[in-house]
Amino acid sequence: MQEASFQGLVKMLLWGFVIYYIIKFLARLFLPVLAKKMVDKAQQQFQQQYQNQQNNQHQNTAKPNPNLKSDKPREKNKVGEYIDYEEID
Protein backbone atom coordinates (compact mmCIF):
# COMPACT_ATOMS: atom_id res chain seq x y z
CA MET A 1 0.00 0.00 0.00
CA GLN A 2 1.30 3.43 -0.88
CA GLU A 3 1.26 6.32 1.47
CA ALA A 4 0.36 9.86 0.47
CA SER A 5 3.34 12.13 0.34
CA PHE A 6 3.67 15.87 0.61
CA GLN A 7 5.23 15.97 -2.87
CA GLY A 8 2.23 14.10 -4.36
CA LEU A 9 -0.17 16.53 -2.69
CA VAL A 10 1.69 19.53 -4.10
CA LYS A 11 1.73 17.96 -7.58
CA MET A 12 -2.00 17.30 -7.45
CA LEU A 13 -2.77 20.86 -6.31
CA LEU A 14 -0.51 22.28 -9.02
CA TRP A 15 -2.23 20.23 -11.74
CA GLY A 16 -5.62 21.26 -10.35
CA PHE A 17 -4.73 24.95 -10.62
CA VAL A 18 -3.32 24.49 -14.14
CA ILE A 19 -6.44 22.67 -15.34
CA TYR A 20 -8.70 25.23 -13.64
CA TYR A 21 -6.99 28.17 -15.37
CA ILE A 22 -6.93 26.41 -18.76
CA ILE A 23 -10.68 25.77 -18.53
CA LYS A 24 -11.28 29.34 -17.39
CA PHE A 25 -9.26 30.71 -20.33
CA LEU A 26 -11.04 28.50 -22.87
CA ALA A 27 -14.43 29.43 -21.43
CA ARG A 28 -13.66 33.13 -21.89
CA LEU A 29 -12.84 32.42 -25.53
CA PHE A 30 -15.68 30.11 -26.50
CA LEU A 31 -18.66 30.93 -24.27
CA PRO A 32 -19.40 34.31 -25.93
CA VAL A 33 -19.37 32.64 -29.34
CA LEU A 34 -21.69 29.86 -28.15
CA ALA A 35 -24.01 32.33 -26.42
CA LYS A 36 -24.23 34.47 -29.58
CA LYS A 37 -25.11 31.41 -31.66
CA MET A 38 -27.84 30.44 -29.19
CA VAL A 39 -29.30 33.97 -29.17
CA ASP A 40 -29.25 34.13 -32.98
CA LYS A 41 -30.99 30.76 -33.22
CA ALA A 42 -33.69 31.80 -30.72
CA GLN A 43 -34.21 35.10 -32.55
CA GLN A 44 -34.60 33.27 -35.84
CA GLN A 45 -37.19 30.93 -34.34
CA PHE A 46 -39.17 33.86 -32.90
CA GLN A 47 -39.14 35.58 -36.29
CA GLN A 48 -40.43 32.44 -37.99
CA GLN A 49 -43.22 32.08 -35.44
CA TYR A 50 -44.16 35.76 -35.86
CA GLN A 51 -44.22 35.45 -39.65
CA ASN A 52 -46.32 32.29 -39.46
CA GLN A 53 -48.75 34.03 -37.11
CA GLN A 54 -49.00 37.05 -39.40
CA ASN A 55 -49.58 34.82 -42.45
CA ASN A 56 -52.31 32.89 -40.61
CA GLN A 57 -54.05 36.11 -39.55
CA HIS A 58 -53.84 37.48 -43.09
CA GLN A 59 -55.28 34.27 -44.54
CA ASN A 60 -58.08 34.17 -41.97
CA THR A 61 -59.15 37.76 -42.63
CA ALA A 62 -58.96 37.38 -46.42
CA LYS A 63 -61.46 34.51 -46.64
CA PRO A 64 -65.02 34.95 -45.42
CA ASN A 65 -66.32 32.16 -43.26
CA PRO A 66 -69.29 30.44 -44.96
CA ASN A 67 -70.56 29.10 -41.62
CA LEU A 68 -71.39 32.58 -40.34
CA LYS A 69 -74.94 33.88 -40.66
CA SER A 70 -75.71 37.11 -42.43
CA ASP A 71 -74.85 40.43 -40.81
CA LYS A 72 -78.47 41.12 -39.78
CA PRO A 73 -78.84 42.02 -36.11
CA ARG A 74 -80.52 39.40 -34.00
CA GLU A 75 -84.04 40.03 -32.87
CA LYS A 76 -84.42 40.09 -29.11
CA ASN A 77 -87.10 37.97 -27.56
CA LYS A 78 -90.10 40.17 -26.80
CA VAL A 79 -91.66 39.39 -23.48
CA GLY A 80 -94.55 41.76 -23.68
CA GLU A 81 -95.69 45.22 -24.62
CA TYR A 82 -94.23 48.44 -23.34
CA ILE A 83 -96.87 50.49 -21.56
CA ASP A 84 -96.23 54.17 -21.07
CA TYR A 85 -97.49 55.50 -17.75
CA GLU A 86 -97.67 58.77 -15.91
CA GLU A 87 -97.02 59.20 -12.24
CA ILE A 88 -99.90 60.73 -10.27
CA ASP A 89 -99.12 63.02 -7.33
UniProtKB/TrEMBL annotation:
Record field: compositional bias (Basic and acidic residues): 69-81
Residues annotated as transmembrane: 12-31
Low complexity biased stretches: 45-60
Residues covered by region (Disordered): 45-89
Highest taxon, organism lineage: Bacteria
Keywords, in A-Z order: Membrane, Transmembrane, Transmembrane helix
Annotated protein name in UniProt: DUF4834 domain-containing protein
